[in-house]
Amino acid sequence: MMKKKNWPLRILCALLFVALSGVIMLSIYTLSAEDGLESGSRSEQVTEVLKEEVQERLESTPEGVALSERIKAFIILHSPYGSDWNMNVRKLAHFTIYFALATMCYITLAILGVGKIGRILITMLICGVFAIFDELHQGDVIGRTMSERDVIIDSLGALTSVGILTVISIFYSIISYPFRKNQ
Question: What 8-state DSSP symbol labels residue 143?
């Protein structure tokens, strides 16, 4: 499990990542506690800032304009929300914040020496349960509704993080194997 000489540092690092997980969970809870009007206003502001950034940075060259148009066409074609940029930004926020939460949980478990399968299962369980309870909480907020789709998007964000981190972990295990064998 843990190397004896490293346990104080591992515990300290794990506490740091637990604290970061707590900050992310508090952010999720705080955002879902906003009433519908306030939440809609915030996401519209974020959407407008993103549109301005894309226009200013990406669409300032002919290549950028071409790339921007390809991205817009891809999103409109594949997003269930089509060209509703505000809804796309809201759902991307769900995906991203649960990606971050899963990352913090997975790293905490890795630091504590939990095996890969355990990390995957525990991280997905934490994120899935938190997503469900967050939606239940949001259902009690004025102007907000519970959404199974949001739980699915949250879970996909967590699953993507877990997948990437597991591949990195497996790759690291393969690369470091010859060095461990000689110890």
Answer: T
Which residues make Cβ contacts (< 8 Å) with residue 165, sequence separation at least 6? 102, 103, 106, 107, 110, 119
- Provide the 3-class DSSP secondary structure of residue 114: coil
Q: Which two tokens stand for residue 75?
A: 């999103």
Structural domains counted in the chain: 1
Range of the domain at 157: 4-40+87-181
Rounded Cα distance between 64 and 77, Å, is 20
Let me know if residue 72 belongs to a domain: no
Task: Please give the share of the chain, as a percent, with pLDDT higher than 70.
Answer: 95
pLDDT digits (tens, 9 = 90+) for 29-57: 999 999 988 988 888 898 888 888 878 88
Q: How many residues belong to the chain?
A: 183
Distances (CA, A) of 91 to 69, 84, 86, 147, 177: 21, 11, 9, 11, 40
CA atoms of 128 and 122, how far apart (whole Å): 10
Q: Look at residue 1 and tell me whether its pLDDT is greater than 50.
A: no
Q: Identify the CA nearest to 45 among candidates 89, 14, 15.
A: 89
In this predicted model, what pLDDT tens digit does every residue of 71-100 receive, in sequence order?
888 888 878 777 788 888 889 999 999 999
User: Residue 141 pLDDT > 60, yes or no?
Assistant: yes
Domain-located, residue 103: yes
71 part of a folded domain: no
Q: What is the mean pLDDT of the chain?
A: 89
Residue 55 within a domain: no
